[in-house]
Design a protein that fits this description.
The structure holds two protein chains of two kinds. Chain A is α/β, with parallel strands linked by helices. Chain A has eight helices and 18 strands. In chain A, helix 3 crosses helix 4 and helix 5 runs parallel beside helix 8. Chain B has one domain: Rossmann fold. Chain B is globular, with a radius of gyration of 21 Å. Classes of the chains: A alpha/beta, B alpha/beta. Strand 13 of chain A pairs antiparallel with strand 11 of chain B.
Chain lengths: 326, 246
């Protein structure tokens, strides 16, 4: 019996969201009186894997098969299922990413397990009950869910778990080699295209997000959003109307029918705060709203606010951010 | 080409969410229900493909009778017929089992749905159905085209980029924007929808693997601290020294 955490790599390093999943998994293991093992697939530096010891992982199983450098759902599922079997894992932990949730769903079927995605807190384990809290109604509520199968699969919402750090601890790294068949690659991607973030930060991983709405008046003013984001090390985002009219790409749309973010700091410039937008951001730790309309509903959901034209306020914020010691 | 489109009946995006019975049940009082917005992308794209290539679009809902107005709406938008599995959708695993039973019986070339429902936000059912049927599931897709009669080309979103995938029929895919511009029903569609077949079947057994025991709402903010626009730079200092987020 153990806890198995799937960690995703990006450019050879472990994604921040996977460090969170590892921290989550090792805390669950501790509560259950067992150890936490990680499984990694594809192109990840072995030093980065050993460093997972800092998140409480004792062992890492690593399948370095060249064909797995890109995400292939069925092959990944087989590798993780192999690791789960080898470790007799009763709890599997993923990041609630497009990859983690997809693989988790397939494993729920293959291992006959209970799955909860979008999980925001550590489980409550009480006798036979294993209860997790997950976000529902697109950020408007939470639900406590009992996972009733023997095997429990949890996909942890990004930025909802603190990364733990036991300085200096290292995990042992063991090779894993799953018995992959040609059919596991039937839906392998023909091509993978990564966005050019211009050295910026990816929105789903970001700790700080600077977001613009129609109050920005046009795409030509986005240099102000990007300028503040650059000074703060933030990702950029936008409201639904802005992506609908094509000022910004769809993958930047934050809200109920876009992506849900929960950064430490969300700065909204020229966004009125429709209920659908609030649903996508209201688990952010600190919310700043800049809007020229003092009646904008977003102010009710904000921690800090500035009543003023975003086009005049943002340059002042950029200037003040430049003056901070970094 | 036979396409199955799965739709959920969900509270409208503008709904205020409340709970009753000691926070154990969702309060339907005063809530308007709509077709899950993500499912609308799947439905419209299915209809576009049918118009271009021929075939049929069947709408499937796993839910109770109160979903029927929105099933009719899907027929009005352009689906040919509908099936409702008469069951409370207990959890994703249960729903996936019902969809799989219908899909196996119907022999569909493509099973489409939204990437998640806006009420339970699972992002689970499509991948479970793919796994249960032993066919590829491509999720979340924002582009879907046919390359030839037996192959589809999809683009799916991954964190920080996209993947281009070509799969043979049959397959499962989940949809998100900008796959297409969701359609609204026209008067002719609404009239013809009344006479299109809507078959109600009972659940094919199946079990849930999770149970919802309690609900809660996020804590309300204690109030906004306003900073004068002329002195906007002060905000950055507060974010560092008071909120400690910079």
């Amino acid at each position: 019996m153990s806890v198995l955490v799937f960690v995703e790599g990006l450019n050879g390093e472990i994604k921040k969201s996977s460090l969170e999943a590892a921290s989550y998994g090792s805390q669950v293991a501790q509560a259950m009186g067992t150890s936490a093992t990680a499984v990694a697939i594809g192109e990840v530096h072995e030093e980065a894997l050993a460093k997972l010891g800092e998140q409480g992982i004792s062992k890492v199983l690593y399948d370095a098969d060249d064909r797995l450098k890109q995400f292939v759902a069925d092959a990944y599922v087989k590798v993780i299922a192999t690791a789960a079997q080898q470790e007799s894992a009763k709890v599997l932990v993923f990041s609630n990413s497009n990859i983690g949730a997809a693989v988790g769903s397939k494993l729920a079927v293959r291992l006959n397990g209970s799955l909860a995605t979008n999980v925001t807190e550590l489980p409550k384990i009480d006798g036979g009950n294993f209860t997790v809290t997950r976000g529902v109604f697109s950020g408007k509520a939470f639900a406590d869910v009992n996972l009733t199968s023997d095997v429990k699969i949890i996909a942890v919402k990004k930025n909802s778990t603190d990364i733990i750090s036991n300085g200096g601890s290292t995990a042992t790294v063991e090779k894993l080699s799953a018995d992959l068949a040609e059919s596991d690659f039937a839906a392998a991607p023909k091509e993978t295209v990564m966005q050019d973030t211009g050295g910026g930060v990816l929105l789903p991983e970001a700790e700080i997000v600077v977001s613009g709405g129609r109050g920005m008046k046009g795409p030509e003013n986005w240099h102000l959003i990007e300028g503040l984001a650059k000074e703060l090390g933030a990702a950029t985002a936008c409201s639904k109307p802005v992506s609908d009219i094509g000022w910004r790409p769809h993958h930047e749309h934050v809200g109920q029918t876009g992506i849900t973010v929960s950064p430490n700091l969300y700065i909204a410039a020229g966004i009125s705060g429709a209920i659908q937008h609030l649903a996508g951001v209201n688990s952010s730790k600190v919310i700043v709203v800049i809007n020229k309309d003092p009646e904008a509903p977003f102010f009710k959901a904000a921690d800090y606010g500035i009543v003023g034209d975003a086009l005049e306020v943002l340059p002042k914020l950029i200037e003040a951010a430049k003056a901070l010691d970094k | 080409m036979k396409i199955l489109v799965c739709i959920s009946n969900v509270p409208d995006t503008t709904s205020k969410i409340n709970f009753t019975g000691d926070n154990k049940e969702f309060d339907k009082n005063g809530v308007q229900y709509v077709i899950n917005p993500w499912d609308e992308y799947a439905l419209t794209r299915a209809i576009e493909l049918k118009e271009a290539k021929g075939g049929s679009v069947t709408v499937l809902n796993v839910g109770e009778a109160d979903a029927e107005p929105n099933i009719r709406k899907a027929l009005a938008i352009g689906a040919d017929d509908a099936i409702r599995v008469n069951a409370h959708p207990k959890d994703a695993f249960f729903v996936a089992q019902q969809i799989t039973a219908i899909a196996k019986e119907g022999g569909y070339d493509m099973i489409l749905m939204g990437k998640e429902s806006i009420d339970y936000n699972g992002f689970q059912v499509h991948n479970m159905v793919g796994e249960m049927m032993g066919i590829p599931s491509v999720t979340p897709a924002f582009k879907l085209d046919m390359v030839d009669d037996s192959t589809a080309r999809l683009e799916r979103e991954i964190e920080g980029g996209k993947e281009v995938v070509e799969v043979k029929l049959p397959f499962v895919a989940s949809a998100q924007q900008p796959m297409c511009e969701p359609r609204i029903p026209n008067m002719r569609g609404i009239m013809t929808a009344r006479t299109k077949p809507l078959k109600v079947v009972e659940a094919a057994g199946g079990e849930a693997k999770s149970e919802y025991v309690n609900y809660s709402k996020p804590e309300k903010k204690s109030g906004v601290k306003l900073i004068d626009a002329d002195n906007a730079g002060e905000l950055i200092k507060l974010l560092r020294n008071e909120a400690k987020v910079l």
